[in-house]
Specification:
2 copies of one chain form a homodimer.
Chain A (H helix, E strand, L loop, with lengths): L3 E2 L4 E4 L3 H11 L4 E6 H6 L1 H6 L6 E6 L8 H13 L7 E6 L1 H13 L5 E6 L2 H7 L4 E6 L2 E8 L4 E4 L9 H18 L1 H7 L10 H18 L14 H12 L7 H20 L3 H15 L9 H9 L10 E5 L5 E6 L2 H19 L1
Parallel strand pairs in A: 2-9, 3-4, 3-5, 5-6, 6-9
Antiparallel strand pairs in A: 1-2, 7-8, 10-11
């Protein structure tokens, strides 16, 4: 598989170890600090260590899960870096999913005003989503990614063998971003994507590659999210709010599961506000529902969800901002939907869920 | 007075209001968020508001002082931004000394992954030091500026009338950076600087301007502190450690007061390690001592100070790094001094203090 070369770093795919060892030898790093959680420590770290020529490692472990993507965990990471006397010539290696990548990248970018870091994404979600874009950060006051910076890693290494350590549920969560990339920018890919039913049997590399190309095209056009890049937000205005809400319950959703709900609601908005055809609305809804099942969104939390959406970073001048598709494969940014329309979209989602579960 | 044009922003000097109003009108900001402490709120904010055409202000107040340059204060600032629904089109206006500028800039750079900010430095120290260099951050685990980012403001406005609100002690603290800039890079300026004895009667604008030119020259050559920029660290390896130590006592020192101690110790090291002449050592020592008096550094804290110095960001490969002068007006970076030499330099400082106070 080809590598992907972006403006100031590269994404190495598949057979990554030779490139990785070249990278660290050229870097002359004083130390490699690897950030892991209890899962990647067990399932991924041994592989990384075995395949690396560098010997001077420092391991920092944090608890897994979005609920730990907080300032308190950053404090643990910064303190660990300081206690180990990590200097500015060190390299931080983020070995994990989106939480590790976003938070580890943020900590590296702010420790002593910034040390080098690389991403070793171990989940499908992180491989297709977090590899491009330079978005780093943490959740704050229940708002996702509300504190952070834009900064690119020195390199990304996508080793698909790590995907074998994932549960079916995690795989499905990551697949949501692949679906999104096809819906906003690649009709042919959507045709291939929607034919997938057995995720465990899928050869992911070619889907990851196509998906990264979509994201690359959009991000290079608009690195700081001033305009076009908001296209990537499809499904995320509603999805992030739903994710934040469920995070506080006893049955939190994975990111992609929340985004799948968001994509159904926002496909409805695409139909209502941007004239997406009924046929395409049904096509997207039914594929997402059969894959993600249907967790209802309780009516009594609609107001809270609207409040969370109002706090989304991408809003300007106090309006709630959406990226909508019309037709499948093309996207329109800076679409406004009012409260009534958003509530309708959530009702639509709940009705569809009811229809398949009754 | 001329303005100073840097790579991606400008510093406006003296008669700043017209430039300021042009700036905000061009920016089309959704809101101006001004960060103040109890002092600048009383003495500087009314002037800023009176002279601004923009009407949509949000004021955030934090307590003054280096002891509040912490992550907890950042949390207050981020929460205030979030509670006021500040969006990415807002401008943050940091109205205060170094703490406000460094911490406000850091919070702006990380809120929603970065909003625009400008600096209105109100102290002499901030006007000559924090206006150039893009260094933002906070203290963490007792190590100064150990968490932060490099990011330039959109503009800096230096209004010297604000200096009239300063105490003699604060003025003297800021003057230390002017002294430093002359010692490392401008012999002729050092001759002018050392003739100053009555700080209150000084016309600061020309000294600020010369001092900024020195800093500009160095920073533009090395924006991310990879090499030459460490020149600016003269006096700061020892000075920062001394400042951190006194911060925990009942009689904390102002930044410039600690840097004055650091400059005496490091001028001694310049003599010992880099062959600065005895005459120049005496010249620097006696000027700094007569101006800053002499607070002794207790012998029993030497070990703690060495520990703090070992944690300085600019160290690499676990050695303590100094920037030394030889002769006055030129500087040498990446000089190493061992523990024994550093202790000698502190002893030298204490002996000189004893000589003038006995």
């Amino acid at each position: 598989m080809q590598n992907i070369y972006l403006q100031d770093y590269s994404i190495f795919l598949d057979d990554v170890w030779e490139e990785w060892n070249n990278f660290i030898q050229k870097g002359h790093y004083s130390k490699l600090v690897v950030l892991v959680d209890e899962n990647t420590k067990t399932y991924c770290l041994p592989l990384l260590l075995k395949n690396s020529v560098h010997q001077n490692w420092q391991v920092i472990e944090i608890p897994s899960g979005e609920q730990h993507k907080t300032l308190s965990t950053c404090e643990l990471i910064w303190a660990a870096l300081m206690d180990a006397d990590i200097d500015r010539k060190a390299l931080m290696v983020n070995l994990g999913g989106g939480v590790i990548g976003d938070m580890g990248g943020f900590c590296a970018s702010t420790y002593k005003r910034g040390i080098d870091f690389v991403q070793f994404p171990t989940t499908l979600l992180a491989q297709v989503d977090a590899s491009i874009g330079g978005k780093l950060g943490i959740d704050f006051h229940k708002v996702k990614n509300s504190i952070g910076v834009f900064k690119n890693p020195k390199a990304v290494f996508i080793f698909t063998d790590f995907l074998q350590t994932l549960s079916a549920r995690e795989l499905r969560s990551g697949f949501a971003e692949i679906i999104k990339h096809s819906l906003i920018a690649d009709t042919a890919e959507w045709e291939r994507v929607k034919s997938i039913s057995l995720l465990e049997k899928t050869d992911w590399m070619k889907f990851i590659y196509s998906s990264l190309l979509v994201k690359q095209r959009i991000v290079e056009f608009d690195p700081f999210e001033k305009g076009l890049r908001k296209a990537l937000n499809f499904g995320h205005t509603v999805g992030h709010a739903v994710e934040s809400y469920f995070l506080e319950t006893n049955s939190p959703l994975l990111h992609g599961e929340a985004i799948a709900i968001g994509m159904i609601a926002e496909t409805y908005l695409s139909h209502r506000q941007a004239e997406l055809s009924t046929k395409q609305l049904q096509e997207v809804t039914s594929y997402l529902l059969q894959l993600y099942g249907g967790v209802p969104v309780p009516t009594h939390v609609y107001e809270d969800l609207l409040g969370l959406m109002a706090k989304d970073k991408k809003n300007e001048y106090q309006q709630i901002n959406f990226s909508l598709i019309q037709p499948i494969g093309s996207v329109h940014v800076n679409k406004i939907a009012d409260k009534q329309a958003i509530i309708e979209s959530l009702n639509y989602y709940n009705q569809m869920v009811k229809a398949i579960t009754d």
